[in-house]
Structures are given as structure tokens and as C-alpha cells.
Design a protein that fits this description.
The chain has 2 domains: 1-35; 39-269, Rossmann fold. It is 40% helix and 21% strand. It is built from 10 helices and 10 strands. The protein has helices at 2-35, 90-93, 98-101, 124-141, 155-165, 180-187, 193-196, 203-206, 227-236, 258-269, and strands at residues 37-38, 53-61, 64-71, 78-83, 87-88, 105-110, 147-152, 170-174, 213-219, 241-246. The strands form 2 sheets. It has an 8-stranded mixed beta sheet with strand order 2-3-6-4-7-8-9-10, with helices on both faces. Strands 1-5 form a two-stranded parallel ribbon. The protein starts with a helix and ends with a helix.
Length: 270
């Protein structure tokens, strides 16, 4: 009887182990479905907005084209390079251009590979290279001292890497993560994300190399990426990072708070 009992236990552990391995394989190969929620647009889709804009295309290499929107003023004070979150496309994200355009700033938003009209196979390395290509192209038209890099949620990692590798005027990151792995660990703590996750996005490493002043904006009631992520980021370089807490703010509603717009105004005008 004891032998049968031990065999049953061993068989149970074997099945559990096989199940765990299968789970890891499943997560590894389909993780992009959980990370990215793009809206795809037809190549002939026509954007329509009531402020002046033009459509941009950044040809990275054969088969890879990054689509963007450029909202422009007659005599801009500078440029906001806006990296959006992990959902939708610039068609919808473009509504936030007004938050900066009203202060006489040009705004450029771009879609990542597989979002909107942008094409190309995704990987962290290639996406980071794309954003650097965009920055290099825009810095021909705008002096770096007049460029402010803005990253929202997932885009905060890309924005921080661009700011670390260049010398923009400011970096602004909205509802950022300490690292993408920390977000994944919060929702699936039993998995070895250090080896499993193909998108690490180490904001914590890159932010220590940013030379310009950094402004972090985060809601105190953010349930998706808690405020603690931003508090830890600020602690990495407190003399160069200002943390702005939006009391009661969640992850997706900061622009509905007057305090958010007041801080954006103060950063841009002063």
C-alpha cells in the first residue's frame, strides 16, 4: 500500500512538472498576445483632425515602416515626441496631442510595429532601434534642446531608453513601470520571467543614464502599475527625477484631472 501511495505522489509531481513546462512554453510563444493589443489600420486609411497635421512614414529597412502623425504650429516652442501605451493606434492616441499643442508645441506620435499602419516583426531590440531612428530623423529638424520625450505606460520604457541615449530637453514618463519584468511578476509570480519574458524593458537601468531632468507623473490609485514603481524609479536618481503624484488618479484617466494639465503646463512653459 505504501508503495502504491508513493507511486501516486510521484506520478502527481510528474504531471505537475509537465504541466508547468507546458505553461512556460505556452507563455513564451504567445506572450505578445497579452502584451500588445494593437489596432490595425488599412494602409489607405485617412486620418482626420481639426488641428494642422501631416502623416509621417519612417522607412527603417525593407519591410519595416513606422507610421506617425505630426501636429504642427506656425512657430513652435519645441517638439513633444510621444510614445503611447500598449493598445490601439495613433488614430486614437492623437487626441492627447492637444495637451501639448495648446502650449505651442509640435507633437509627433508614432505607432510601434504591428500597430496602425506600421509594419515589421516585433522584438524589443528592433522596436528600440525604431524609436531611435525616429528620434534621429526628427533631431535634424528640431534641436535636441527643444525636444521633450514623453512616454505613456508601456511607452515609458521606450521614452526612457531614447532619453538615455540622447540629450533631449526633458523626459516625461506617465504611469511608468520599474521594469516590464516587475509587472509580469506581479500578475504571474510563479513563472521564471527572467528567462521567459522576451520584453524586459529595463526602465530602471536606463533611467540612471538619463542626463536631462525627468518628470514622472503617476496616479495614487493606479491598480495596473502601482505608484510604488515610480517611487522606486525616483529613488534611483532623486536629484534629477521629480515625481508628481496625481491624487486619486488611476492608470488610464490622468488627463481627466486638472492637476495633470497644470503640471504639464508648468513643465512646458517654465
Amino acid at each position: 500500500m505504501l508503495l502504491y501511495f508513493l507511486l501516486d505522489i510521484s506520478r502527481g509531481w510528474l504531471y505537475a512538472g509537465i504541466g508547468y513546462v507546458l505553461l512556460m512554453l505556452l507563455v513564451y510563444f504567445i506572450q505578445e498576445r497579452f502584451i500588445f493589443k494593437p489596432e490595425k489600420l488599412a494602409q489607405d486609411f485617412q486620418y482626420k483632425y481639426d488641428i494642422p497635421f501631416k502623416e509621417l512614414f519612417f522607412d527603417i529597412e525593407q519591410g519595416v515602416r513606422i507610421n506617425g502623425l505630426h501636429f504642427y504650429c506656425k512657430k513652435p516652442n519645441g517638439l513633444i515626441l510621444y510614445f503611447h501605451g500598449n493598445t490601439r493606434s495613433i488614430k486614437g492616441w492623437a487626441k492627447y496631442a492637444r495637451d501639448f499643442y495648446r502650449y505651442n508645441y509640435d507633437v509627433v506620435l508614432v505607432d510601434y510595429r504591428g500597430f496602425g499602419k506600421s509594419t515589421g516583426k516585433r522584438s524589443e531590440k528592433e522596436m528600440l532601434n525604431d524609436m531611435q531612428f525616429v528620434y534621429d530623423t526628427l533631431s535634424v529638424q528640431y534641436h535636441e534642446n527643444h525636444i521633450i520625450v514623453y512616454g505613456r505606460s508601456m511607452g515609458s520604457g521606450f521614452a526612457t531608453k531614447v532619453a538615455a541615449d540622447n540629450t533631449p530637453r526633458y523626459l516625461i514618463i506617465d504611469s511608468p513601470y520599474y521594469s516590464f519584468r516587475k509587472v509580469a511578476e506581479r500578475y504571474a509570480p510563479i513563472l521564471p520571467h527572467r528567462w521567459l519574458l522576451r520584453y524586459q524593458l529595463r526602465t530602471d537601468r536606463w533611467i540612471t543614464k538619463v542626463n536631462c531632468h525627468t518628470y514622472i507623473i503617476h496616479g495614487t490609485r493606479d491598480r495596473l502599475i502601482p505608484l510604488s514603481h515610480s517611487e522606486k524609479l525616483q529613488q534611483l536618481n532623486p536629484n534629477k527625477i521629480t515625481l508628481i503624484r496625481i491624487k486619486g488618479g488611476g492608470h488610464n484617466n490622468l488627463p481627466s484631472f486638472p492637476e495633470y494639465h497644470n503640471f504639464i503646463r508648468d513643465i512646458l512653459l517654465y
